Amino acid sequence: MKTAIVWFKTDLRLYDNEALIKAIAQSEEIIPVYCFDDAHFETTQYGFKKIGNYRAQFLLESLQDLDNSLRKMGSGLVILKGKPEVEIPKIVEEYRALKVFAKREVAFEEKQTENLVQTALFKLRCELETFSTSTLYHAEDLPFAIKDIPDVFTTFRKKTELDATVRAVFKAPITITSPEIPEIILPTLKELDLRFSSIDSRAAIQFKGGETEAMKRLNHYFFESKSVSAYKETRNGMVGEDYSSKFSAWLALGCISPRAIYHEIKKYENENEANDSTYWLVFELLWRDFFRFMFKKYQTKFFLYSGIKSDKVNSKALNKKLLSQWINGTTPSEFINANMLELKKTGFMSNRGRQNVASYFCNELNMDWRIGAAYFESQLIDYDVCSNWGNWAYLAGVGNDPRKHRYFNIEKQANDYDKDSSFRKLWLLQNY
């Protein structure tokens, strides 16, 4: 019997999951697995948990939802915990699997783990086959080789839009043939050395993990509320559920694919209208692609203080007092404080807020931008390695910004984007 393992990572979905579909097509039986990688639950060199409470909760919900969906098809999810390069080969031996199907990684640590697993599997005469499942445009369809991708987004976008097309989605399987898979036992937050944190009731949205919830959100934002038709005008908002799509958390864990969103946009445009706003959502998905391809091109450079530039001055020393004020929302700036409190109490922050607090960190506090990026990594529900580190490098002036030094006038930004102080009042009530 030809048995294959499907190793789920940040692709926790059945719809438009090429690794899963190819595994089903090439095998007689498949074993879906997810491995809680010990390295993801350690404290980083910057002093923060790699995965914080909010993101861990979202992950557990997403895995439970994936298991529910798999069971309806005659399968289920096997949960492993430890080092993937140890645990994946063990399950390969247990089921005598000939092949492991998985999502292809681009960021440095993830790529290292993938290589370690591949080496361990090679010794067992088991093949690891990976698929590019997390971008809107497939890397093979780009009008340039990875090493030649333009470092300026606008150049990348214009040529890609002109010369590349978005591939069709892979439909979700109807049935999956698996041996009997025991009932799922997910680790508790306590076992992961974390604790439950309820999302503050003032949150812009109460995120819940899983493909089911991702599809609900998609349907709400497009077809129930038609909010997508005003996206370009409202996307810089800061209060409420529908000023932006809020797809980011589900995209980050792969509960939905960018291609699925793209094709729903096209469906929406056919049924309703195509305008600047519907295009702008595709534009934002392209930004996400851009950072992924930049990580393929530059590998470790986005984790260096000098980023992808070579002319950055020496790193600034850590100031623990200023860092604490920034994290806890006790800086001299009310606008920064409101945004940082939102992040601390909900695991989310608006795009406008993120740009401002990152600019403040780099320009006003003059600290190593990677400390800020590492705090975001720990705190954000929608943390995505390429988008997070790529955007922080951009704001720090060591990434893909063609303008060398982007500086935000925080007070002007507050007046422009929180004119009536409603956002500041929401989070700093006692001060108003």
From TrEMBL:
Protein name: Cryptochrome DASH
Role according to the record: May have a photoreceptor function.
SUPFAM superfamilies in the cross-refs: Cryptochrome/photolyase FAD-binding domain (SSF48173), Cryptochrome/photolyase, N-terminal domain (SSF52425)
Domain (Photolyase/cryptochrome alpha/beta): residue spans on this chain: 2-136
Family annotation (PANTHER family): CRYPTOCHROME, CRYPTOCHROME DASH
Molecular function via GO: deoxyribodipyrimidine photo-lyase activity; DNA binding; FAD binding
Cofactor(s) this protein requires: FAD; (6R)-5,10-methylene-5,6,7,8-tetrahydrofolate
Family that this chain belongs to: Belongs to the DNA photolyase class-1 family.
Binding sites annotated in the UniProt record for FAD: 231, 244-248, 284-291, 382-384
Keyword Metal-binding found: no
Gene3D superfamilies: 1.25.40.80, DNA Cyclobutane Dipyrimidine Photolyase, subunit A, domain 3 (1.10.579.10), HUPs (3.40.50.620)
One Pfam match: DNA_photolyase
Keyword Cell membrane attached: no
GO biological-process terms attached to the record: photoreactive repair
Keyword terms of this UniProt record: Chromophore, FAD, Flavoprotein, Lyase
Bound cofactor: record note: Binds 1 FAD per subunit.
Organism of origin: Flavobacterium gillisiae
